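Narrative of activities, Objective 1.

The group set out to show that a structural description can be obtained from nothing but a protein's sequence at a throughput compatible with the screening campaign. Below is one input-output pair from the validation batch, recorded exactly as produced.
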Amino acid sequence: MHEPAHITIVNVGYRSTNYWVVSAGTSRLLVDLGWPGTMAAMRANLGRMGIPLNEIRYGLATHYHMDHAALAQEFKRAGVPLLVLETQVRAIPLMKAHMKPGDRYVDITTNDNVTISFAESRAILAQIGIAGEILSTPEHSDDSVSLLLDDGSVFTGDLTPPALAGDDNAAAVAASWQLLRERGATRVYPGHGPTRWMGVETVGEKSPTGAEEKMFRT
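Output recorded for this entry:
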């Protein structure tokens, strides 16, 4: 088992979606897994940021929508195991219904994933040198999860910022953010838009995606 190491965070996103590589040295976790039919763009961004594909120990989707999980099977074919939370299993086959033939989506097999409970997530992450846990934050979708590192960095996918919550989802939004605060979240790495500190709803910095990718060090 690896000892927890200094963590670096790199954005390899494109098409206005952030894909975060969380690294403990050369042991890496990719949070969110790309648009369908765009593996070449993902590989190019990983290469530009100096991240070998064979150093990614797991891929994790914050939820199974086409902009966050559609390259999962292609990553598996490239040797990157798919880490799936127990609440996400049913969502995986449903994603296919939203794809069109032109999307070039590769259907995700369900018999060869690494499926775990939330309680098991800390031990699994520790095996790759990352101190943290995966939490259920089911506001955007029932299968939505967030990755929370022990240093306070939290990867929230499409969890709605509190200021943008409507009457129909205000309670679910508040409950998810309250959980993250209670567990020690301090800096938010969202699925879209710039990073921000917890409690800050608007910031002036640009989203570090596409040509503006850069490294964030925790």
